[in-house]
Amino acid sequence: AVPTGATSPSGLPAREASASVDVVVVGGGLSGLTAARDLIAAGRSVLVLEARDRPGGRVYGMPLGDGTTSEGGAEFIGPTQNRIAALAKDMGVATFPTYNSGKNVYYREGKRSLYATDGLLGAVPPDWGVLDLEPALLSLGGMAKKVPVGEPWKAPDAEDWDSQTFHTWSRSHSLSAGARFLLDEFVSSTLSVRSKEVSLLYVLNYIASAGDESNPGTVDRLINTKGGGQETRFVGGSQEVPLRLAARLGDRIRYNAPVRSITVDGSTVTVAADGITVSCKRVVVAMSPAIANKIDYSPALPAARAQLMQRYPMGSIAKFVAVYDTPFWRADGLTGQAVADSGAIDATFDNSPPDGSRGILMGFMNQSNIRKLDGASPDDVRAAGLAAFTALFGDKATSPVRTAFQRWDNETWSGGGPVGVAPPGVLTEFGPALRTPCGPIHWAGTETSTFWTGYMDGAVRSGERVAAEVTAAL
Ligand SMILES: Cc1cc2nc3c(=O)[nH]c(=O)nc-3n(C[C@H](O)[C@H](O)[C@H](O)COP(=O)(O)OP(=O)(O)OC[C@H]3O[C@@H](n4cnc5c(N)ncnc54)[C@H](O)[C@@H]3O)c2cc1C
């Protein structure tokens, strides 16, 4: 049993509890929960300190206001995402295919067109720009093959690729406006940043990481629904996975306990959170580098790690959903998936429950689209979201039963999403610090994963890796 708090003489819990365990895990997202599960299985005493009042971090069931939820954060999994699939299976969470029958909508320069996704191009819309898009995508795939997964700084051309943004590269490798838009949209829909915000090397590593030990990563696996990362959903919502894992950990998780400081003194680490101070031998910080930077480390961390955390910003992402009596777009022969170059939403999916008993459209508000809504009232956000859905799916989209909205870029304990990204110069100068432990402080989080970094699968993989690392060190 793990002591989770001292009691005061009155028998009531003391205001400032204290405890002592082998390992403190900071953060109850998928990476921290997985690390805790494995460390407990290895016979270690563990306490997870979580800032929020719930587990799951970037995996969250957004309340729809009628007692049900829809994924406000991570949602899809796909082929080669074996570790999240295994965890979900272990937790008894079933899966079902993302709705993908019919045509997708492409909206560019005020024109709406429909396209099938079972052709050679998969999810890529057949814009005229495709003539020079395909060579650009082939070139990207070829460069990504030369990136050692998870160690992009070791690529032969790392210096060159890390000295330019994806925007710089794409402008010199595509001529048409259509191809440029689609390359920008590739970055927006996978990373939720504009292509000028991210290093080419980072994007190449992201492509390389979209696979597993026996299947090299590909662009297709990142962007496709069928055969790609958006292929499958979880029955009851993705949040069932962290909720059930957290339930198994029981009182080894303490909620509403944001960690403020980590102090290393000889072989003892003191982790101070709101309401509780815990001493331990090793600590796992299981979150993105940008959010790990909010913790006060004493003594100061090595400069490579400290400055990495200053340089790894989060993308800007929100989800807007509208609930309808029926998934009306299905009757119109549409998948519910769309790509758009204007309006508040640049990509959509059908988020309806498996039985299609009601229709839920989900739209991503990415990068500058969501920042433009800073300070907007809930009514303004709703109007912007519904205007976008109407342009893509017609007038039936104007009158939903209800809507919901979740933005991540102003969440205190996430700071954005789906993932931290590296601007030019960061991976080659600071990249190795992503995973290198600093004495008894170990780092997890999807950003540290080799395969499927940025995804739930990467989070689970990072938790498994860090638990093995800590077990070996103890
Ligand atoms: C809108 C959105 C859509 C996404 N879509 C997908 C998708 O379809 N498929 C997919 O695979 N992935 C998707 N992702 C990415 C996925 O959510 C993440 O890769 C994954 O959940 C990260 O898990 P993590 O444990 O690394 O980090 P997190 O989930 O961020 O967990 C970190 C935890 O640490 C806590 N914390 C932070 N600071 C402190 C502190 N000081 N003290 C204590 N606790 C702290 C946080 O509250 C959080 O619970 C999406 C993300 C977003 C935001």
From TrEMBL:
<feature type="domain" description="Amine oxidase">
    <location>
        <begin position="30"/>
        <end position="470"/>
    </location>
</feature>
<dbReference type="InterPro" id="IPR050703">
    <property type="entry name" value="Flavin_MAO"/>
</dbReference>
<dbReference type="Pfam" id="PF01593">
    <property type="entry name" value="Amino_oxidase"/>
</dbReference>
<dbReference type="InterPro" id="IPR006311">
    <property type="entry name" value="TAT_signal"/>
</dbReference>
<keyword id="KW-0560">Oxidoreductase</keyword>
<dbReference type="InterPro" id="IPR036188">
    <property type="entry name" value="FAD/NAD-bd_sf"/>
</dbReference>
<keyword id="KW-0732">Signal</keyword>
<dbReference type="InterPro" id="IPR001613">
    <property type="entry name" value="Flavin_amine_oxidase"/>
</dbReference>
<dbReference type="InterPro" id="IPR002937">
    <property type="entry name" value="Amino_oxidase"/>
</dbReference>
<protein>
    <submittedName>
        <fullName>Flavin monoamine oxidase family protein</fullName>
    </submittedName>
</protein>
<comment type="similarity">
    <text>Belongs to the flavin monoamine oxidase family.</text>
</comment>
